Amino acid sequence: MGTLVHKSLLAQGHALSETEKQLNLLQEASLPCFETKLKESNLYPLTAIGVDVFQINIGKMCNQVCKHCHVDAGPDRKEIMTRETMKLCLDAIDKTACSTVDLTGGAPEMNPNFRWFVAQLSARRKKILVRCNLTIIVANKSYNDLPEFFKKHNVEVVSSLPYFNSKKTDAQRGSGVFDKSIEALKMLNAVGYGCENSGLILNLVYNPSGAFLPPDQSVLEVEFKAKLRSQFDIVFNQLFTITNLPISRYLQYLIASENYQGYMEKLVNAYNPVAASTVMCRTTLSISWDGFIFDCDFNQMLDLKVSAKDQHISAFNIDDLLNRIIIVNQHCYGCTAGAGSSCGGELT
Amino acid sequence: MKTYYDPEDLKKFGKVSEWQPELGKKFFDYYGNVFEDGALTKREKTLIALAVSHAVQCPYCIDAYTEDSMEQGFDEEQMMEAVHVASAIKGGATLVHGVQMMNKYKDLSM
Q1: ipTM higher than the 0.85 cut
Q2: What's the burial of A60, exposed, middle or buried (CB within 10 Å: 0-12/13-18/19+)?
Q3: Chain B residue closest in CA terms to A209
Q4: Chain B interface, best mutation among A213, A218, A224, A240, by max B CB count within 10 A
């Protein structure tokens, strides 16, 4: 257990705010190379197999400073996607057959063009996911109508709740976050989110609050549902368990708590070739706030751009991207451990 | 500093098979089978193992099953309750022998 953080690594001037330092650290650990593991599983080079999901990070600004955040998001981060870049994203989306647009951040709702962007996507009849941190809904009055807005555009809400008690939740996400999250969940339930036959999907995300792997998703979902129902009368659809990847603030936590080597060994020992064959980067494109293209949000935070001639959304070339080789590094062990991990939970 | 218990030794547990491969293999196969889902779930077995680890006071087992319990989604309260179960049984096992003492005392008394 440690102290809560209040500033991003960048604002602290921390060495690990630099992606190069993070990559050096990941390379230095005496662990088998991820590429070698893929070769042993006949999966190297890992290639794209389609573009089903556009995951767009529309800004690093957030009202929370979570201890495990791989984005290093926080109130002090000012990087925000402009409407011009959003328009370029829409042009790119129109050139693909993608089914889903996944909006993330930071707190994506803090982008002043968030609602405009969602409306544009909604008009295109795309499945829209918003990774909502819950507390933004109660952060101030201007966000209180988010549940209604989400409902209007049939947005699928995906929200982090690391545990069904305040101790573990607040330890990871900040003091008072659990109570505010419960309040926000009740507001979402009140408009129908998570309720049977409403068609409004509310999924929760569990990230381990420490240096350990997530539990079996289906088993934990049963417990989450029972506890949230009995203690708070809250309902939701599915629980996704997600492994923390050794990037940014979670990497900093692992090092500061002297858990880095042990955690990496755990990830390596839990390598699952079946999970490796179904990793989300094979069907996803990740776009940064400034319009660069990546294989996934984790690669984005390590500034590992796609292996393609044109790496910016302004020169989007779908054919080139469909034939790309996925950029991998040691952090990828996080997605291939155990049952595997993706933004949609377990892979196997 | 040398100590009797080194946490790093836990990773070497499998090496006990080097000096007796046949029995080692039988033990580890059995161990693996025990923790599979059965009439009890793997998750329930983890919590039992955590309690037993404390009862037998094995530092390797306590490290291993604390981590395992966290990975099965148990929280501090649930895990400490499991330790109390071990404590109650161990304490009870001591105390119940008090009956034997009482019996013997009575046998020897006028």
Answers
A1: no
A2: buried
A3: B70
A4: A213
- From chain B, the residues in CB contact with A208 under 8 A are 70-71
| Boundaries of every domain in chain B | 18-108
User: Could you identify the residue written with the tokens 């990847």?
Assistant: A245
Facing residue for A213 by CB, picked from B43, B71, B76 = B71
Of A17-21, A53-57, A342-346, B53-57, the range with the lowest mean pLDDT is A342-346
User: Domain B18-108 is classified in which CATH homologous superfamily?
Assistant: AhpD-like (1.20.1290.10)
Whether A185 maps to a domain, the answer reads yes
CB distance B70–A212 less than 8 Å?
Answer: yes
Structural domains counted in chain A: 1
Residue A3: inside a domain, yes or no?
no
Within a domain: A341: no
Give residue-wise pLDDT tens across range A293-307: 999 999 999 999 999
Q: What are the tens digits of pLDDT across the range A303-325?
A: 999 999 999 999 999 999 999 99
On whether residue A199 sits in a domain, the answer given is yes
* Long-range contacts, A18-24 (Cβ 8 Å, 24+): A19/A301, A19/A302, A19/A303, A22/A247, A22/A248, A22/A251, A22/A302, A23/A302, A23/A329
